Each structure stands twice: as structure tokens, then as C-alpha cells.
Amino acid sequence: MDKGYEKERFESVSLKISVAKKFNSYCRKLSKSKSMTLLLMLEFFEDNGISPAETMGPKMQTLEHLIKKRFNGVIAILKDMEKSQTKPTVAMMQSLFEESAPKKQNLILEKKNAEKDPPKYQERNKQET
What we know:
mainly alpha, Arc Repressor Mutant
């Protein structure tokens, strides 16, 4: 018995013999009763918003191939963007920061200045003292 539908009564549906045979074999494949198989089919079409008269389009393998192609296209675009935009921009930014970094200069101390003075200046300082 079908769960949740035990107390419902049966209604007859008229089918052609060839359709009834095909439907019976499909019910056996699913291991469901005829009522549950028909209910599953109706819910499938309603949930997916498709009509049984419409085709589902290409098979899953074809769809998978198309998706892989698009992913490869996206990857190629991203790699091109990285080459042409990101890397040059990063290089420019690094060169700007390297140039703007202050160069380290030695502090000027009095002792070093006295030692670097020319000898004439040192002699004058000695004579004045």
C-alpha cells in the first residue's frame, strides 16, 4: 500500500493497451505502484516547470562538455587579465614605493667633520688656541 494514501479510494483511468503495457513495465523498473509512479512523474514535471511535450535538450555529457569549455574560457580570461593588468600594475606600484623610500644617510657628527677638514684649517685652529 502507498504510504499516506491508504484511505483514498481508487479511480479508473482509460489507457490504450500499448501505453498501459509500457507504463506497467516502467512501474516495475521503479519498484513503485502505478499511482505512486504517476504521482512522481507529475510532481517532476511541475517542480521543474517543463512540459512532457518539450525535449530536455542535449544529454548530460554534452552539457558537461559545454560547462568545461566555458570554465576553460574563464580561466584564459583571468590569466590574460593577470598578465596584461595585474602584473604590470604591481610592478609599477613596487617601483614607486622603492623610489619614494628614504635613503639611509649617515648622521653628521662633529668629530668626523674635524677629521675631514683640510690640513690648513686644522693648522689655523691650532694657532688660534
